[in-house]
Amino acid sequence: MDLVLKGGWVVTAERVEQADVAVKGAKIAAVGPDLSTEGAEVRDVTGKYLLPGAIDAHVHYQMAIGDLMTADDWFTGTRLAACGGVTTVIDYAEPTSPAETLTASLERRLKEAGEQACIDYGLHQVVLPGQEDDEGELAAVVARGVPSFKVFTTYNQRLSLDAIGRLLEKARRLGALVTVHCEDHGIVTARKEELIAAGKTDPAYHALSRPERAEVRAIKDVIALAGEAGAPVYIVHVSTGGGAAVIAAARREGRPVYGETCPHYLLLTEEKYAGPDGRLYLMCPPLRTAGDNEELWRHLSAGSLQVVATDHCSYTPRQKNAGTAFYNTPSGVPGTETLLPLLYSFGVRSGRLTLPQMVKVLATNPARLFGLYPRKGDLAPGSDADIVVFNPRKEVVLTAAHLHSAAGYTIFEGFRLQGYPEATYLRGRLIYEGGRFLGRAGDGCFIPGRR
């Protein structure tokens, strides 16, 4: 053996047990009590949790929108991920226009990531209008190891409902999963125009501009299309209790519908938009109410939502403050680094989630849904040795100075946590310990997904 982590509490999606973890090369070789340490480096992790590396299944690193580029590129994004106990991220390959093929956009993104990423990564493929009918390109993307497509029901790159239905049918044949940003474009457009006409354009009106009913209606429409196509569907960044309830109802009927939410929708409210730093909290969908927070926690605990991811899309305060209204301020916030500790402190310690449930929504479920399991998402012999040594007693007050995003701020400034990653191993190599990043650009690998 090369490494034995001794005396910790191993946490998987199924159990918590006191056991050692032995690593040989890049893989977990054994999990069990009193493992042999002969010839191995030994680390005493008594009293600590050993968790599978978290998977942030929704990030946007080095993303260009027009002339604007996100603050975190592939290097800084994956570095901050490692410091938060995240060992795999799933980003997006998006064509620059409908004229760029899906495969060309995918290879371009893989090249960008391969030169910079310091943890492992997968990709979702964005499908633009007109590209949903090119089954050859869709099949080539899946064969390359990207078994998930992303579409929008709003924005300029939105697909019509008919087009989404056709894509769902093709995805079913290809064994792929369609993921959808669900907000009804008609509702959002009408509300935006009403607010502009009334002169109500500062960030305080952002939540009003994208009401709950826009999310609920779009989720209902997409689930209906998936049912007609006989295809699974995955709803990204669910922000409302009403949206989660629609997903829960579909799942009770036995439909293969999956939902993702984010820490900011669990922990923050739309009141942030009325403050002096309202632009810093602007993302789409917007923050909601305290009631939505509680409903999302309830659905997460009940299993109606399967994944917590961050939608990490970071901009600096200078980039944010260049906006003059809620509709032209860069949309997105940093979040990958705080994903695991926030969910532990406010999910597990608060009694909303068990430790296995936390591992399930942060690691095992995204690995299964996006074709990375059992290589990722578990602590089992044969899995990659992506291991987080988590100290449940470590107290941390989140500050921008403590974190590593190039955005230079956190929307969770001042949050008091108990429980924090102490060390992160990527495929058996120590890449973070005690506040120090130890990895390197280019160390990350593309992990092909196979559903």
Key traits:
9-stranded mixed β-sheet; 8-stranded parallel β-sheet; globular
Question: Would you write up a description of this structure?
Answer:
The chain has 451 residues and is of the alpha/beta class. Helix content is 32%, strand content 23%. It has 13 helices and 19 strands. Strands 1, 2, 3, 4, 5, 16, 17, 18 and 19 form a nine-stranded mixed beta sheet that branches. Strands 6-9-10-11-12-13-14-15 form an eight-stranded parallel beta sheet. Strands 7-8 form a two-stranded antiparallel ribbon. Strand 1 and strand 2 form a beta hairpin. Helix 4 crosses helix 7. It is globular, with a radius of gyration of 21 Å. The mean pLDDT is 98.
List the total number of helices.
13
**Helical residues, percent:** 25-40%
Q: What proportion strand?
A: 15-25%
Mean pLDDT score, rounded? 98
Low-confidence stretches: none
Question: What's the topology here?
Answer:
Layout: E1 3-11, E2 16-24, E3 27-32, E4 41-44, E5 49-52, E6 54-56, E7 64-65, E8 68-69, H1 74-83, E9 86-93, H2 102-116, E10 120-126, H3 135-143, E11 148-152, H4 161-174, E12 177-181, H5 185-197, H6 206-209, H7 212-229, E13 233-235, H8 241-252, E14 257-261, H9 263-267, H10 290-302, E15 307-308, H11 317-321, H12 339-348, H13 355-369, E16 387-397, E17 416-426, E18 429-433, E19 436-437
Parallel strand pairs: 1-4, 1-5, 6-9, 9-10, 10-11, 11-12, 12-13, 13-14, 14-15
Antiparallel strand pairs: 1-2, 2-3, 5-16, 7-8, 16-17, 17-18, 18-19
Helix pairs in contact: 4-7, 7-8, 8-10
